[in-house]
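User: I'm putting together a small comparison set for a docking exercise, and I want a reference complex before I start. The sequence is below, and the ligand is beta-D-glucopyranose. Could you produce the 3D structure with the ligand included, as structure tokens?
Assistant: Of course. I'll restate your input first, then give the structure tokens for the complex.
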Amino acid sequence: MRTITTRGDGSGPELDERPRPVPADGQVLVRTLRVGVDGTDHEVVACEHGGPPAGEDRLVLGHEAVGVVADANGTALAEGTVVAPTVRRPPNGTNEYFERGEPDMAPEGSYVERGIVGAHGFMSEYFVSAPEYLVSLPRELAEWGFLVEPISISEKALGHAVAARSAFEWNPESALVLGNGSLGLLTLAMLGSRAERTYCLGRRDRPDPTIDLIEGLGATYVDSRETPVPEIPDAHEPMDLVYEATGYARHALETVEALAPNGVGALVGVPGDWTFEVDGGALHRELVLHNKALVGTVNSNAEHFEAAVETLSALPERFLDALVTDVVDLEEYERAFDDGDGTIKTAVEFDTL
Ligand code: NAP
Ligand code: BGC
Ligand code: ZN
């Protein structure tokens, strides 16, 4: 079967042939439909994050997948069920985080991530998985099912942010997303029903399809070159909730200045090393005297995937059509990794339902 792999030497994705996997006892065989590409995939291809399984020189890419059960292999999961796989697996046997259904909270060393670090991903015509790592979705959502994983990231992040404000009465009205990449835009769409006024920060000139999307969602575009994050409260309003998805390390700390009293910032970007100066005293004081919180969050579990299926089913088709700028056939996989002008979200199509 055909797979898309990376060698982990910065040479880019490649089309590769591998034997079709045979499900072990307790596993099902899934026929892959579509697999999305995000900022993390670009980081993996550029060797900035993750890597192949121990002892191997290539990694099968892809962690945002949707497929259909082709061989139930005696499990309770019916053939023909449309499924989205979760990303983390235990490295050796199992551990308490997986047993609790909270692999997303596992510390480094107690998980691998399919398509990212230490385990092959889903960019192959077939993959195998235990049913407990597969979340089913309605057949009519199959074409957008590769968005379940990224939406689940924000289900978790927003859930943790809200939980950090659960000790008191908190009714967020204003929400700001930092970053107009695919994750930022998906989250902006999710926030439409969770905040009265929404904003999204980018660094692009008009005309730009992401700015059209932002405004189409009824949100306000903020250009970071004109309005740096700390100036947002004066230029617009202080934010009850900030969701950071730029991976630009300064934004993580500047988020505190953009927050309203009692506000919370969820940080999901994954930056490289960067040393810069910060007024630590002001930052510390601001967090304490105004009851602000910052929450870092990574990955997601099956419950977040289930919530994401609900969220996906409520997102308007015209938004999804504008967000997903390219779905390419397997032979044209390279186009899905092309981050050129006008590209927002791409996916590789392995097969149709
Ligand atoms: P992406 O496509 O690279 O999006 C990042 C966006 O931020 C880009 O559109 C970029 O604008 C914008 N940006 C960067 N620096 C900026 C600045 N200084 N001012 C304004 N805009 C700026 O990545 P993504 O797939 O949406 O993911 C977003 C981040 O989340 C990445 O760091 C990724 O690694 C991380 N991530 C984390 C998790 C998790 O579980 N925590 C899950 C998925 C992704 P331009 O395009 O104009 O440069
Ligand atoms: C994936 C997460 C993963 C994270 C860190 C993200 O792009 O969506 O599932 O935990 O990268 O590797
Ligand atoms: Zn991802």
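The chain has two domains: 2-136+316-349, 152-296. The mean pLDDT is 97.
User: Thanks, that's exactly what I needed.
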